[in-house]
Amino acid sequence: MTKFKLRLYITGSTPQSHRAIDNLRTICETELPNLYEIEVIDVLEDPEMAESEKILATPTLVKRLPEPVRKIIGDLSDRQKVLLGLDIERLNQREAS
Q: How far apart are CA 12 and CA 57, in angstroms?
């Protein structure tokens, strides 16, 4: 199965940034054990990277692989929204059949 490559854009060490990181790690460990890579980009430290991906708000999660590329804005606390955005629900349904 394809490994998920995820990039999470945050702004500094804020409560919202920490919440997004924690929520993402929890979802990945539960739904994609050993099938994901997370890269956290602080836009204060690397604004060029954020600009190149047209990141306008943080936190923003970018699913780079598997395609299609998707973006999810927010602290990732809405688990269903994240699963839908990452196509994990569809992936789980396909494996169950």
A: 13
